[in-house]
Design goal:
This protein has 14 helices and 19 strands. The chain is an alpha/beta fold and about 450 residues long. A hairpin with a 5-residue loop joins strand 3 and strand 4 (about 55-60). The model has no long low-confidence stretch (mean pLDDT about 95).
């Protein structure tokens, strides 16, 4: 559901939402009502103040000492029906809360009618409403794609999503599918996806935009699009397989970011590469012990068929490098080890370019879209080397650091013409709360967009 219906230009009847930074902020009948409701102004607390007839006349929103912009997500889910406006907030606070509110309006209702947020928020002064709605819709695209079950979001449907975004922006799309991947030089993508049913055949999807503008730097975005991950012959247990519809979350992030780049007409050339596969089980599934070829020419011994994401990204990153990008960013739901290290809400970013990683982390802080830098530790490089092939897709047990070693594997295929960053995202909210429903989530997307729009400002 688009945030356009809930973030509105103006309304004369809008009721005020005022900050409460503590109980001392409240006076008169509002203070009396707050005491009765046990409202103290703690961050996230919401107090609806009634008038003489019992109808709401204002809301107070607890902030504590510092306003967290994304707390605005809860307002969309918790405010009573009607139009509301932010009053008494500093301009940056109000603008951040408005974006949070827009993000909080998301509802996934494809299969079941759900109550949409009933409140609407007047856009505060100084807010770039069009940009805010673009960001909210990009995040909603990620969440919708991730929330959609694999039966309705397979490789072909991922391709359709790319074609829809490309068509709206005048971009070109080239797709290599099924056995044609072998002749086109994408053997790893083919190997991972070949066990799927014919109508869910693997594919390499390439979007190009503004490529004729050769005086502009080239930006490459790469996404892991595993529509469903059974684990392959190294089959996942039931609990581990339950939410594997989300394993195409990296592709959804890369596509959403590409859409933002094109909508803003950023002065770059853009290439988006998505390897879309289903890691399935059949008589033709790739096996532990197999040695796979890759587009780069490096061979990979398969130690675990459930470490498939890095294999398809190897071919996609190699293809990205052939364009000579000035900057490459890949998104992937790559490892459970990243969650063990940092939990579900803090995605690691791997990058050996100090300027790029500093820009990313600064952008993440500005827009409250957290990232945490993890090391491409050279001491673990040997853990992804094999005896009978150039590399192995499951790192040696002694290294233990599974997210780090996966990133080191990808680094062997990353473009060398410019900076590269890898985001190992979870793409999922494991706990539901107002404005943050359990399910698909965009992580690092707003941070990456904030960094790009500053780096490539016209």
């Amino acid at each position: 559901m688009s945030a356009n219906a809930f973030l509105i230009p103006g309304s004369d009847a809008a009721l005020p939402i005022r900050p409460a930074r503590g109980a001392d902020d409240l006076t008169g009948i509002t203070a009396t009502w707050a005491r009765a409701a046990d409202f103290t102004g703690k961050p996230g607390q919401l107090l609806i103040v009634p008038g003489p007839d019992g109808a709401p006349v204002e809301a107070r929103f607890g902030t504590g000492a510092e306003v967290e912009p994304m707390s605005g997500r809860a307002l969309a889910a918790r405010l009573p029906a009607g139009d509301w406006r932010l009053e008494g907030w500093a301009a940056p606070e109000a603008q951040g809360l408005a974006l949070g509110f827009a993000l909080g309006t998301y509802v996934f209702d494809r299969y079941r009618r759900r109550e949409a947020p009933r409140a609407r928020l007047v856009a505060p002064d100084g807010l770039d409403l069009a940009e805010t709605l673009r960001i909210a819709d990009a995040c909603a695209r990620v969440r919708r794609m991730v929330d959609t079950p694999a039966a309705d979001m397979g490789p072909a449907e991922i391709e359709a999503e790319v074609r829809a975004v490309a068509g709206a922006q005048g971009a070109t799309v080239a797709v290599t599918t099924g056995d044609d991947l072998l002749g086109a030089g994408y053997p790893a993508v083919h190997a991972v996806g070949r066990a799927a049913a014919p109508h869910r055949a693997p594919r390499l999807i390439e979007l190009g935009w503004n490529l004729e503008a050769t005086d502009r730097p080239l930006l490459a975005l790469v996404g892991k699009g595993v529509a469903f991950d059974t684990g392959g012959l190294d089959l996942k247990p039931a609990a581990g397989m339950r939410n594997m519809k989300k394993d195409m979350g990296g592709a959804a992030h890369a596509l959403a970011l590409a859409g933002l780049v094109m909508q803003a007409d950023l002065p770059v050339r853009l290439v988006l590469l998505i390897a879309a596969v289903e890691n399935s089980v059949s008589a033709d599934a790739f096996r532990p012990g197999d040695v796979l070829a890759t587009r780069k020419g490096l061979t990979v011994e398969i130690g675990n068929t459930d470490a498939e994401g890095r294999l398809i990204l190897a071919d996609a990153l190699t293809r990205a490098g052939e364009h000579g990008p000035a900057l490459t960013i890949d998104f992937a739901t790559l490892t459970g080890a990243a969650r063990m290290a940092l939990g579900p809400e803090l995605p690691p970013v791997y990058c050996d370019d100090e300027t790029l990683v500093a820009d990313l982390l600064a952008a993440a802080h500005r827009v409250s879209d957290p990232l945490w830098r993890m090391p491409l530790w050279p001491g673990y490089r040997s853990s992804v080397e094999a005896e009978i092939a150039d590399l192995r897709n499951d790192s040696a047990a002694w290294a233990q650091a599974g997210s780090v070693t996966a990133a080191l594997f990808l680094q062997r295929f990353a473009p060398t013409t410019g900076a590269w960053a890898h985001l190992d995202v979870f793409a999922w909210n494991p706990r539901g709360r107002p404005g943050w429903p359990e399910g698909g989530e965009a992580q690092g997307l707003r941070a990456a967009w904030e960094m790009l729009r500053h780096r490539f400002a016209a």
